[in-house]
Amino acid sequence: MTSLARDPGASALLTDFYQLTMLKSYFERGLTEVAAFEFFVRKLPASRNFLVAAGLEQVLEFLENLRFTDDELEWLARQKDFGARFADSLAQFRFTGDVDAMPEGSAFFADEPILRVVAPLPQAQLVETRLVALLHFESLIAAKAARCVLAAPGKLLVDFGLRRAHGAEAGLLAARASYLAGFSGTATVAAGRRFGIPLYGTMAHSFVQAHESETAAFLDFARAHPENTVLLVDTYDTEAGAAKVVALAPQLRAEGIRVKAVRLDSGDLGEHARKVRRILDEGGCSEIRIFASGGLDEHELARLAGAPIDGFGVGTSLVTSSDVPGLDCAYKLQEYAGRARRKRSEGKATWPGRKQVWRTVAADGRFAHDVVGLETESQPGLPLLQPAMRNGVRVSPPARLEEIRARALSQLARLPERLRGLARAEDGYRVAPSAALRLLADEVDRRQREAASG
Q: What is the CATH number of the domain that holds 353?
């Protein structure tokens, strides 16, 4: 029996079936010349004014380690669609190509390539499924998290979504993507270990219920966690729970323990927060902060902007991007064997050739507009796609997550004000194709028409 102990995300077989059927045809027909593929989002969702590039680190890690194991090759060889000869050809399969990409944390818009792969056609083709999965998911969650950050400026924001994520990897990568986009930390312990993301956590209602009284539960938790005493006060009666915290505070202070915060998780969070704040302040506990969770999204965060709440835990809506669970994105062939290629399907036409994105900045430091043109062009503005991998090897060590987070926050600060709100901006961000790109598209179309009529 084949072992499945290996991380499924690292498997070369975690792909669509048609990637392997095409690979076999390329193998048999000798279609192995260099190809250029680009990943982009065709259009922004109705409720998004921008997206945030994320997932590049996982993409590079996947490409660096891509190979077929002996077990996988033996399994392939037994499949009637493939056979031993094709399976044997994959024994030394490695990614040896180039990758250019927007750095993680970059704001981007529709029709802008955020990653380009240049490699022999079989290599560039096989990696499509995994690359799309990684870039799509992390960019989707990073954009959702960025909206939360913009809706609750200056607030502590914590990812609470692991238990509602669509699988363990989704929960782990959502923690990374949300922190990258400006969240303060996560409750996902594995993300703390793997990515160094700050961990936050309190107690569950079950902890309180397991005790004979709230007071006993609060004392036990405080003594077990004197440096991180955050008490959940709404298991029975929110305001009564807050009053118990005030009553316990002098005893805990005498033991060298200071309550850091109380947590609200139900009801009208704004109204409860105002009442709890009053109870704490009048009881001489003005230093105790209020943290809230429970069914929050960016719209609720904006609604609670005036409430005396210092931080929020955001779960389901974040890790599932519940209002926009998917992006219309694609990874498409733009060049093969030195010739530009173009898809012309209705509603899904692509711009041909290897491209670059140039961003112009206004006098106030805000982003003004972008131009998408050919890689070989010279355009005003800052070129956004940067070398990430050459000949299958990274061009630099992995970026620190703190650096990526700082970049993302800087990018959010430089968005035009009309794009920073939660509603769709009537006047969106301008992204224009260059004249040279339009000419190349016309040339490719003419060549395709001639080939079809010849």
A: 3.20.140.10
In sequence order, what are the residues at sequence separation of 6 or more whose Cβ sits closer than 8 angstroms to the Cβ of residue 284? 246, 249
In a domain, 122, yes or no: yes
- Residue 247, helix vs strand vs coil: helix
DSSP code, position 244: H
137-149 tens-digit pLDDT: 999 999 999 999 9
Output b/e per residue, 312-345; b: 16+ Cβ within 10 A: bbbbebbbbbeebeebebbbbbbbbeeebbbeee
Number of domains in the chain: 1
Q: Please tell me whether residue 101 adopts helix, strand or coil conformation.
A: strand
Q: Which of 228, 191, 221 is nearest to 206 (CA)?
A: 221
Domain assignment present for residue 114? The answer is yes
223-237 residue pLDDT tens: 999 999 999 999 999
pLDDT of residue 50: 98
* Mean pLDDT on 388-396: 98
Q: Tokens representing 116?
A: 């380009």
In whole angstroms, how far apart are CA 416 and each of 53, 366, 378, 419?
A: 18, 6, 25, 6
Write out the residue range of the structural domain in which residue 384 sits: 8-136+332-396
Distance of CA 291 to the CA centre of its chain: 24
Taking each helix axis from N to C terminus, what angle separates 168-180 and 401-413, rounded to the nearest 10 degrees?
60
Is 86 part of any domain? yes
| Contacting residues for 222 by C-beta, under 8 A, at least 6 apart | 229, 231, 248, 252, 257, 259
Structure confidence at residue 299 as a pLDDT band (50, 70, 90)? very high
Place of tokens 């779960």: 315
Statement: residue 5 has pLDDT above 50: no
Q: Nearest-CA neighbor of 117 among 104, 129, 105?
A: 129
The H or E element spanning position 311 is strand 311-314
Tokens of 179: 């922190």
Q: If pLDDT is split at 50, 70 and 90, which confidence band does 450 have? A: confident
In the Cβ-directed half-sphere of 322, how many Cα atoms lie within 13 Å? 13
Share of the chain above pLDDT 90, in %: 95
Residues 138, 115 contacting (CB under 8 angstroms) = no
